[in-house]
Design goal:
Layout (H helix, E strand, L loop, with lengths): L10 H4 L4 H15 L9 H29 L4 E5 L9 H7 L3 H10 L4 H5 L11 H15 L4 E6 L7 E5 L2 E5 L12 E12 L2 E6 L5 E7 L2 E13 L6 E11 L5 H5 L3 H4 L1 H9 L10 H30 L5 H4 E6 L5 H13 L4 H11 E4 L10 E3 H7 L1 H21 L4 H7 L2 E2 L5 E3 H7 L3 E4 L2 H9 L3 H6 L4 E3 L6 H7 L2 H11 L20 H26 L8 E6 L8 H17 L8 E6 L7 H19 L7 E5 L5 H10 L2 E4 L11 H7 L3 E4 L5 H8 L5 E2 L4 H9 L4 H6 L2 H11 L12 H9 L5 H20 L1 H14 L5 H13 L4
Helix pairs in contact: 2-3, 2-5, 7-35, 11-13, 13-14, 13-16, 15-16, 22-23, 23-26, 23-34, 24-25, 24-31, 24-33, 31-32
């Protein structure tokens, strides 16, 4: 007799989760799944065996969730994202399903420490920064608030890269996260789809000469194979699916060529397929990198659309109801080619006319924009796009004709404005604008903070907004409190439970109950003790990895995020140099001990970002070794920033650096994580900082610098950074020291061009905001001196930022964009 995994006969086993039963199951898992005896089992074996025991319980709920969605004919959400920065899954899943404590006891019975083996789980290298981490939070929250959902992405073999430093320079190495396999995933060979590239398009006409359809005949084909990972919601009531695509050759080996002696040629197709899913964000500074990136984006979009359409047809037998049963969400422009791909499938494969297909497409898709930087709104050279995707190029032109006809009919756009609306940038370098394609093909376009959404209407999508005024809306980002409080900060979680009970575990807004305790001296002392323990943990990590000793009693000032000029790590470093000068020049002053931590990766082809990393490490080398500083200032750049490192750094932060040039950060989620863990924000009025300020109150955040409107005004009116620098002795001295080689004796000119860029242009307003930033930092020092005041402000941050939960964000998406009940 064959038993289904959710058979009633299995329930007594799967539902019995006491430590002794779990210990027995772990041993069985070790023996029968891994083929190991306890005497030879490695820590990795214990990790895998433990995960598979809990995974059994998850599978049961996973199947029930999937069956329920099918039987109830629930509308499903399909979230397409090139990144899912999910990090380690073990603690998250164990906790969400309510088995963390029992598994810890079970392993202890076997002489194994859960915390030790948990550290062996690699971070899934599926993302880079905030966009990918947001996607991961959203997947967990969709399961938590009971939204049936699939996430779709790429199963990268190496992901972005593992970052190491060589003499302070970033070195990119392969991230080998799959070396020991992935016990969470399931290969689904039965869900495999051919994806084509290149080739020709043929027209099929009827006997009377009418065009009936187009047939794309690709010259290249690869196979997209699905790998599924269960995503467990809080309390484990729903388990959704993260489906990642891996590329395989349609013909793994050309046997005829191999037998003829052309062994390399025989494997060429296999190698071409495997390259597709090796690395996230191949360098696009050259044409080969651009082509690979476009291939990746089409590969996963096409496979995902085929999967979605087939699932809908198998249940409903027709496609006219697709928008009623499927909400497909584009996480930024990376999957925007899916708009043209759905049109192709509807028209060419299923015989639906253009107008009907376009209506179905627009009602099915929604698009989240994550940037106001024009260069980050992807565009592809028309020749490249047409060579790789000839049928899609035809469809893009057809869509563009429809959009431009609507724009002309509106009679409110001049020629230049219509040119900005066009899906094709006309010029010497004709390009397909993926942001415009995503906008035109979606019924909803949302920003990720109130400021970002307003600026979107005024800048990058101003003309499209005038043409389609009802489409842009705001959905401020959020973070999952399970990962970013309960799991990463057990001390603060337990303190809150002791103080206000457990209800906030299910509704993070109830942390507001901590607000009155900011005035309670005894609670402040307990809160400070928790922070001290978290700082000690980070100090130990820094000592082990870098050999740098840091004092946990110092103010921990942390900036961790992708390295980019608009995020202004450079401003932070220049201020550190100025502070270094002041400490040495005025030793009589009462300086507060401070450790400035940095973490983040620079894109391999982004020269200035990599130079900023080198500068940070050069400045650290000089300052950390100078006895005149007396340990009052240290700089620490921790390599290979990832989710697991963030889980240690975020709870340890006293000060959260959110200092982007106003008007350039869409939202940020690091700002929310830090505040939830009791750090005070120093930041510009940019992205979600604006809303954090509104929530925590003006007295509990340190705001400085130009506003977005002031930045735009300065740029428009001929901003002269040189005049500002010459009027600021501290800034001038710091820039001169960097440019003249004080921190780069081996190469005195290393930073000359970087600093000259501030004098000559300063697009990111480093000089304009420097004096305000230094004043804000001295204000931070004055608050820090009064420990009760600092702790009270930190506690109020924790108590007042529950609104920035991804549960709230997802409920808004569900009710206002996806039309899914929550």
């Amino acid at each position: 007799m064959t038993l289904a995994p959710n058979s009633e006969l299995l329930r007594p086993i799967l539902h019995n989760s006491d430590p002794k039963t779990l210990a027995t199951e772990i041993l069985k898992s070790l023996t029968y799944r891994l083929g190991k005896d306890t005497s030879v089992a490695t820590p990795h074996d214990w990790l895998t065996a433990s995960i598979k025991v809990v995974r059994d319980r998850i599978i049961e709920r996973w199947i029930e969730s999937t069956k329920s969605a099918y039987e109830q004919k629930e509308k499903r959400v399909y979230y397409l994202s090139l990144e899912f920065l999910i990090g380690r899954l073990m603690r998250d899943a164990f906790s969400n399903i309510g088995m963390l404590d029992n598994m810890r006891e079970a392993l202890a019975l076997l002489g194994v420490e859960l915390d030790v083996i948990a550290k062996l789980e690699p971070d899934a290298a599926l993302g880079n920064g905030g966009l990918g981490r947001l996607a991961a939070c959203f997947m967990e929250s969709m399961a938590t608030v009971d939204v049936p959902a699939h996430g779709y992405g790429i199963r990268y073999v190496h992901g972005l890269f593992r970052q190491e430093f060589s003499d302070g320079w970033q070195v990119e190495l392969p991230e080998t996260w799959l070396d020991h396999g992935n016990p969470w995933e399931f290969e689904r060979r039965e869900r495999s789809f051919e994806v084509g590239f290149g080739g020709t398009v043929e027209s099929v006409t009827s006997k009377d000469g009418r065009l009936e359809r187009h047939v794309w005949k690709p010259s290249e084909r690869v196979l997209a194979v699905a790998y599924d990972t269960p995503v467990v919601g809080w309390r484990g009531e729903r388990v959704n699916t993260l489906r990642l695509w891996s590329a395989m050759p349609v013909d793994p080996i050309l046997l005829e060529a191999f037998n003829a002696g052309d062994h390399i040629g025989a494997m060429r197709e296999s190698n071409k397929a495997e390259v597709l899913t090796q690395v996230l964000y191949p360098a696009d500074s050259h044409l080969a990198g651009q082509e690979l990136r476009l291939r990746q984006e089409y590969f996963f979009s096409a496979a995902s659309l085929e999967d979605i359409v087939q699932r809908h047809l198998s249940q409903y037998g027709e496609l006219l109801s697709l928008p009623d049963k499927a909400a497909i969400h584009l996480n930024d422009t990376h999957p925007a080619v899916a708009v043209a791909e759905l049109m192709r499938q509807l028209m060419d494969a299923h015989g639906i006319d253009f107008d009907t297909a376009w209506d179905l497409t627009k009602r099915t898709f929604a698009y989240t924009n994550h940037t106001l930087l024009p260069e980050a709104l992807e565009s592809w050279p028309v020749p490249l796009f047409e060579r790789l995707l000839p049928r899609h190029m035809q469809i893009v032109y057809a869509i563009n004709a429809q959009v431009l006809l609507e724009a002309r009919a509106a009679q409110k756009f001049d020629g230049e404005q219509i040119g900005r609306i066009s899906l094709i940038h006309e010029g010497s370098d004709r390009r397909v604008r993926m942001g415009n394609l995503a906008f035109a093909g979606s019924h909803s376009i949302n920003g990720v903070s109130a400021l970002h959404t307003d600026l979107m209407k005024e800048t990058v999508f101003a003309d499209l907004h005038r043409l389609y005024p009802g489409r842009i809306n705001n959905k401020t980002n959020g973070i999952t409190p399970r990962r970013w409080l309960i799991q990463c900060n057990a001390g603060l979680t337990n303190l809150a439970r002791e103080a206000i009970g457990d209800a906030f575990l299910d509704d993070v807004n109830l942390l507001s109950g901590l607000d009155p305790l900011a005035d309670d001296a005894a609670f402040r002392e307990k809160f400070a003790a928790v922070k001290r323990a978290n700082k000690q943990r980070l100090s130990s990590l820094v000592g082990e990895r870098l050999g740098i000793k840091v004092d946990p009693s110092a103010l921990f000032d942390i900036q961790i995020k992708r390295i980019h000029e608009y995020k202004r790590q450079l401003l932070n470093i220049v201020e550190a140099v100025a502070l270094y000068d002041q400490i040495r020049s005025h030793p009589e002053k009462d300086w507060e001990p401070r450790v400035k931590f940095f973490g983040g990766k620079a894109a391999p082809s982004y020269h200035n970002a990599k130079l900023i990393i080198k500068l940070a490490n050069d400045v650290a080398r000089v300052i950390n070794r100078d006895p005149a500083v007396r340990g009052l200032l240290k700089i620490v750049f921790i390599p290979n920033y990832n989710v697991s490192l963030a889980e240690i750094m975020v709870p340890a932060a006293d000060l959260s650096e959110q200092i982007s040039t106003a008007g350039m950060e869409a939202s940020g989620t690091g700002n929310m994580k830090f505040a939830l863990n009791g750090a005070i924000t120093i930041g510009t009025l940019d992205g979600a900082n604006v809303e954090i300020k509104e929530r925590v109150g003006d007295d509990n955040i340190v705001i400085f610098g130009l506003t977005a409107a002031e930045v735009a005004e300065r740029r428009a009116n001929g901003y002269k950074p040189r005049d500002i620098i010459e009027g600021s002795p501290e800034l001038a001295q710091a820039l001169s020291a960097i440019a003249s080689g004080v921190f780069s004796h081996d190469d005195p000119d290393r930073y000359r061009d970087l600093i000259n860029g501030i004098y000559d242009n300063d697009w990111f307003m480093v000089a304009a905001d420097f004096d305000a930033f230094t004043a804000a930092q001295r204000k931070v020092d004055s608050i820090w001196r009064n420990s009760p005041e600092w702790q009270a402000k930190a506690i109020r941050n924790v108590a007042r930022v529950g609104w920035f939960s991804s549960d709230r964000t997802i409920r808004q998406y569900a009710s206002e964009i996806w039309n899914v009940p929550v």
